[in-house]
Specification:
Number of strands: 17
Helix content: 25-40%
CATH architecture of the largest domain: Alpha-Beta Complex
Bound molecules: zinc ion
């Protein structure tokens, strides 16, 4: 079968590999029906994910059909259409039991698929702990509707969930890349009073403005005054930082009102410094880290009910054989690309 492979720093290549087989009792083999490219794949390509194992098949955002399951898999059966979770988690350790699946202590725990074990930019993949890692897609939900459930949409859902958003709140979202837009959709779901999105890229800003007219979109130079105009308390009630730059980190705590929740979803290239002497009295609550991706059933239900739709994010579709071209467009942000779908 064809598999897009991390050959070494800076190099991915499409190769022939043997079809995966069941190895553990909790494994499932999934036939990929649609995959996507994530910014984290680019991080592997550029060598900024030291855990990534050379030779592995990349890709961790996909949907497919269950082909076979190990003897202790009970949540899905062969033939089921499923979303694959970016995170691998055992479901039984201390962290899993508390819903903190990002910190699962099992050897494959956390981001393993498409990083430490073979992933989904291929025709088939093996999913460990399939009872946790796969979610059945409702019949009425298409592959394109479900494509982001296990990764960027799970991230947006988790970020909105932990941010304690109320009906009176002014919410500021920094960054309108694919994860920023997923975060926006999940924030809107929670019905806050107003949402401001800060995005410096003109094409991305336009994308949000055109599709979500209820949202105010500004560049970083105008975000502070825009937030102040809309707040009676000197800043945003909730800030979600999904951009990952030095500037967006600074804006996150500057634009927050005292006692706000600041949720940092972004991953930074370098350490960021919080000027605690200056903001000591602001009494901010920071929430940070990687997605606890255990809400996929609920996300799929919202999609089924028509309350969440990420299909507009899929701006391009390529067959697996042309994945090099798909990466070039995604990486170069050509042709107004937001997300690329890959068909095996
Ligand atoms: Zn990802
Ligand atoms: Zn666990």
């Amino acid at each position: 079968m064809l598999a897009y492979t991390y050959a070494g720093p800076g190099l991915f290549e499409l190769k022939e590999k043997p079809k995966p087989v069941l190895q553990e009792a909790q494994d499932a083999i999934v036939k990929v029906t649609l995959a996507s490219i994530c910014a984290s794949d680019l991080h592997i390509k550029h060598g900024s994910v030291p855990r990534a194992v050379p030779g592995i098949t990349v890709g961790h955002e996909l949907v497919g059909v269950v082909e076979s399951v190990g003897p202790t898999v009970t949540s899905v059966v062969p033939g089921d259409r499923v979303t694959v979770n970016v995170e691998t988690f055992c479901g039984t350790c201390f962290f899993c039991k508390h819903g903190y699946v990002n910190n699962c202590i099992c050897p494959d725990g956390g981001w393993a698929i498409g990083c430490r074990i073979d992933g989904g930019q291929s025709e088939y993949l093996r999913v460990p702990y399939a009872n946790q890692g796969l979610n059945r897609i409702p019949d009425q939900v298409s592959d394109r509707q479900a494509l982001f459930v296990g990764d960027i949409l799970a991230t947006g859902f988790w970020a909105a969930r932990i941010s304690e958003i109320g009906a009176e709140d002014l919410v500021l979202i920094l960054g309108a890349g694919p994860t920023g837009i997923c975060t926006l959709l999940c924030v809107l779901q929670r019905g806050p009073r107003a949402v401001v999105v800060c995005e410096p890229d003109a094409a991305r800003a336009r994308f949000v403005r055109e599709r979500y007219p209820q949202v105010t979109v500004v560049g970083p130079e105008r975000v502070w005054e825009t937030v102040l105009e809309r707040s009676e308390h000197g800043g945003a009630d909730v800030v979600l930082e999904v951009a990952g730059t030095e500037e967006s980190f600074r804006l996150a705590y500057e634009c927050a009102r005292p006692n706000a929740v600041v949720t940092v979803v972004a991953l930074y290239d370098r350490p960021q410094i919080l000027p605690l002497p200056e903001i000591y009295g602001k009494n901010l609550t920071f929430k940070t880290g990687g997605v606890d991706g255990c809400d996929c059933t609920e996300i799929l239900r919202l999609i089924e009910r028509g309350e969440l739709d990420t299909t507009p994010l899929i701006t391009h579709t390529f067959p697996l054989r042309e994945i090099d071209k798909a990466y070039r467009i995604f990486e170069g942000r050509e042709q107004g690309v937001i997300k690329v779908a890959i068909e095996p």
